[in-house]
Design brief:
The chain is of the alpha+beta class and 538 residues long. Helix content is 34%, strand content 14%.
Length: 538
């Protein structure tokens, strides 16, 4: 075990106890959140001297920063608007605390949105959470523990270099080569489907099919046919043989999303298949062996659901051959700026921007103060919420909003009630205003399905081009509730009912764009993609 420094300011890296990562030592460090040169976002400086009890300077010329990685080149912040006279970072009076002294520097500094007049002491808890510093209103930095030893782990398509993201990538690498079921657990919006796809692409079955199913959307009456297939004439409307999701995924990966919201009848069906490793299509007397790798995901507290009789314990044991917990965005605060920049570039085309001008050294955009506010937010909706906010900001910028108006818009967006929450709550009525939730708990204030008319449902789906998540947010209902509303609405046709010729015609009319074809056919893009996979159109 590594020896602690004399002042005990070195901390352990994030990771499960006993793992290699938990034994790595971290030191105070700085991560670039915003810089006139966007290529500098994500650069890190490990303040090893500060961790060993010495004072370090922070200015235009020091310390040296480098991108994460073993072969990175080091350079200072090097912005002419920052003074050469350094700010000073020194060990504080309590173990793990740090003092910022700006008495010898004219550089304007804010910490956590507040001006620093002469000095400021940050507690160990504040450092662990991450303190956002803005220098000269141009550069934003995150002061928090970093790993002084670069770690090389495959990216797997994940954006981020935080300690928790590196742990996640290490677990993906460990699980990818195994042929056991994997259960992904984490708050909604943390990227579980992206991790499921990474497990498939990095595993032994990467050449096989990848099929994703939203288990909460399966109606109990149709679940067996959807999962296992059906013979022609097996039930009313079965005018042809149907291939189920398990058969479609043979030799590959079957991703079962939202398993915590499965109806009890569907849980029984799934448990039987996982135990027997064979399926029986509806209307058939023969069984078919299955050869699929199961990856499941949920944001539900399954242990509590088991205690309440809403989830079967044997099913949890079958699904959790290898369990991976996805970190919430507030647990990887140093990745917020990296993700924000990634989404700025990615979403610019979605809002008809040919490019995002991030290279203006005189007036860098986005402003450092805006990025700082995003990093300080706790993001109850996680990565998905950050992406939605990024899109709204790009649209506002395209429409000519100035910095003050953008600041007010950020206030509005970050103050909106969270539709995506850490612990999904059943559709309960809003709590009285006098009953405030405990700090750190985000309460879902969803409407009941009986409060949403068919007309309102259709209007929301049309407005959001049949994208289910934005429609659910607009209606203020949970995703399972939206699925039930769609299932019960006689005016909505299901993607599973579409014929090959009809889909092909819509794709041809829409230039091969599945999203546009879905809007034309008035079905969800995800449902259309699944139907296209089953019909061999993808």
């Amino acid at each position: 075990m590594a020896k602690k420094t004399a002042d005990h300011r070195t901390t352990r890296a994030a990771g499960p106890p006993g793992t290699a990562e938990s034994l790595r030592l971290r030191v105070p460090g700085l991560v670039v959140l915003s810089h006139p040169d966007p290529r500098r976002v994500g650069d890190e400086a490990a303040l090893i001297k500060l961790g060993s009890g010495q004072t370090v300077g922070l200015s235009r010329r020091e310390p040296d920063f480098a991108p994460p990685g073993p072969e990175a080149s080091f350079r200072p912040l090097d912005d002419t608007f920052l003074s050469r006279s350094p700010l000073r970072l020194s060990p504080g009076p309590e173990p793990g605390s740090i003092v910022l002294d700006r008495s010898g520097s004219p550089t304007h500094v804010t910490a956590g949105g507040e001006d620093v007049a002469t000095s400021r002491t940050f507690t160990a808890a504040e450092i662990e959470r991450g303190v956002v510093l803005v220098l000269g209103r141009r550069i934003a930095l995150l002061l928090h523990p970093v790993d002084p030893v670069p770690v090389s782990v495959p990216g797997f398509g994940l954006v981020g270099e935080s300690a928790t993201t590196l742990r996640l990538r290490q677990e993906i690498r460990s699980a990818a080569g195994l042929d056991v079921p994997v259960l992904l657990r984490g708050e909604t919006g943390t990227g579980k489907e992206l991790v499921a796809r990474a497990l498939h692409d990095a595993g032994k079955r990467c050449e096989g099919p990848y099929v994703a199913v939203n288990m909460a959307a399966l109606a109990p009456s149709l679940a067996a046919a959807e999962l296992f297939g059906a013979e022609r004439g097996a039930y009313t409307g079965a005018d042809r043989k149907k291939t189920g999701f398990f058969q479609s995924a043979q030799g590959g990966t079957l991703f079962l999303d939202e398993v915590g919201d499965m109806p009890p009848e569907v849980q029984t069906l799934l448990l039987r298949v996982l135990e027997n490793r064979e399926i029986q299509p509806v209307g058939s007397v023969e069984t078919i062996p299955i050869d699929v790798r199961i990856v499941a995901a949920t944001d539900a507290a399954l242990e509590a659901a088991i205690a309440e009789g809403r989830f079967r314990a044997p099913l949890l044991h079958r699904l959790a051959g290898f369990e991976i917990r996805l970190p919430a965005l507030r647990e990887r605060r140093d990745d917020v700026a990296r993700l924000f920049l990634h989404f700025l570039r990615d979403e610019s085309q979605a809002v008809d921007e040919t490019r995002v001008d991030l290279e203006s050294a005189d007036r860098p955009w986005p402003p450092a103060e805006l990025v700082a506010r995003l990093v300080e937010h706790d993001w109850p909706g996680n990565i998905r919420q950050l992406r939605n906010v990024t899109r709204r900001l790009l649209i506002a910028r395209r429409d000519g909003l100035g910095e003050k108006e953008l600041g007010r818009l950020v206030d509005q967006l970050l103050a909106e009630p969270a539709i995506l929450v850490p612990q999904p709550v059943a559709e309960a009525p809003p709590a009285p205003a006098s009953q405030k939730p405990p700090a750190g708990i985000f309460v879902r204030r969803f409407r009941r399905s009986s409060e949403v008319s068919d007309e309102e449902l259709l209007a929301a789906l049309e407005h959001h081009r049949w994208q289910l998540q934005p429609a659910a947010e607009a209606l203020r209902v949970s995703r399972p509730t939206l699925y039930r509303l769609i299932e019960s609405c006689p005016q909505i046709r299901k993607a599973a009912e579409l014929e090959r010729a009809e889909i092909a015609s819509a794709l041809a009319d829409c230039g091969g764009d599945p999203a546009a074809a879905a809007a034309r056919l008035r079905v969800s893009p995800q449902g259309l993609k699944r139907r296209m996979t089953l019909l061999g159109l993808r």
